[in-house]
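Work Package 3 (structural annotation) set out to generate three-dimensional models for the target panel prioritized at the project kickoff. During this period the team completed the workflow that converts sequence records into discrete structure tokens, so that structures can be stored uniformly alongside our sequence database. As a representative example, we reproduce one entry of 106 residues exactly as it appears in the project archive.
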Amino acid sequence: MGLFKKKKDKYALNKKQLERFDGKPLQYAVERVDGVERVLGKNGGIAVLDDVIVVMCEAKEVFRCRIEGATVAELLSGNGVEISGIDDYTEEKRYVVAHYLYYRKV
């Protein structure tokens, strides 16, 4: 019947949804801390591996978090993505906004 089924987490991410972001080139990435944005780097990309999301800028890893427990949402303008999750290295909750590289289609 399904009356007592466990509900899925509506914010849970699956691999198919994350494939949209994999390999996206970035113009720059920023981190919000106490309402202030700090630039993490420029010219990079997003990589979605087996169980982690990685944001790279200028050939350096600036953010890495596990897919489990992370939230990923595209900006309303469509020119970037918001990623929040527990950083693998510092074990702190981080909030990163990555802005896509703009390609003009002529």
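The mean pLDDT is 86.
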